[in-house]
């Protein structure tokens, strides 16, 4: 017997193992490789999304002449523009 032919089932009592057929072991190893590849791809997409969101947030911050109102960008009122300029001067 080979130690690689056994696995410990999650939630089982400590030390309890189940003997697997060689085909099942290969299938599990293949699934593990596929899941790792999918995980790396999702992490890459997540980093790209975070980067895009950060860039868009910075662009919105720089374009302080506009503010969001009801989900739409519109020109700032004179009072808001004066307040914004005084805040920048400080």
TrEMBL record:
Q: Quick one: where's region Disordered?
A: 48-90
InterPro entries annotated for this entry? ZBBX
Q: Which domain of life is it from?
A: Eukaryota
PANTHER family, alphabetically? ZINC FINGER B-BOX DOMAIN-CONTAINING PROTEIN 1 (PTHR28634)
- Listed name of the protein: ZBBX protein
